[in-house]
Design brief:
Blueprint (H helix, E strand, L loop, with lengths): L1 E6 L2 E4 L4 E9 L3 E10 L6 E6 L5 E3 L7 E6 L4 E6 L8 E10 L5 E5 L3 E6 L1
Parallel strand pairs: 2-11
Antiparallel strand pairs: 1-3, 3-8, 4-5, 4-9, 5-6, 7-8, 9-10, 9-11
Length: 120
C-alpha cells in the first residue's frame, strides 16, 4: 500500500508565500514523475507542475514564475514553493506520483489534498 500525504496548506493574504510538501510512503521501489494539481470550487482539476526523478520540470503556463516544484528523492518528497499568491490561487492542491512497486508495476497515486486559501 502506498500513501501520499500533503502538508503546508493554509490561509494567507495576497502577496504572501506558502510551501507545500508531499511525502510518499509504503512499499515503493522508485518514484517516477511527481506533481501537483489543484482544483478550485466549481472547476476541474488542473495541472500545476510536474517533476521527473531526474529533476526535469514542467509547469502550467499560468504558474510559471511564481511556483517552483522540487523534490528530494532520498525522502520520497516533492515540494511546491508558491510566491506572490493571488486569490485565484485558492484551491485544494493535490499531490500525484507514479509509483513503481517491488514487482515493477507502475501505478498512479493521489494524495487527499491540502487547502490553500488566499484572501484579498
Amino acid at each position: 500500500q502506498v500513501q501520499l500525504v500533503e502538508s503546508g496548506g493554509g490561509l494567507v493574504q495576497a502577496g504572501e508565500s506558502l510551501r507545500l510538501s508531499c511525502t510518499a510512503s509504503g512499499i515503493i521501489f522508485s518514484l517516477n514523475v511527481m506533481g501537483w494539481y489543484r482544483q478550485a470550487p466549481g472547476k476541474q482539476r488542473e495541472l500545476v507542475a510536474t517533476i521527473t526523478s531526474g529533476g526535469n520540470t514542467n509547469y502550467a503556463d499560468s504558474m510559471k514564475g511564481r511556483f517552483t516544484i522540487s523534490r528530494d528523492n532520498a525522502k520520497n518528497t516533492v515540494y511546491l514553493q508558491m510566491i506572490s499568491l493571488k486569490p485565484e490561487d485558492t484551491a485544494v492542491y493535490y499531490c500525484n506520483a507514479q509509483v513503481v512497486t517491488a514487482n515493477f508495476r507502475v501505478s498512479d497515486y493521489w494524495g487527499r489534498g491540502t487547502q490553500v486559501t488566499v484572501s484579498s
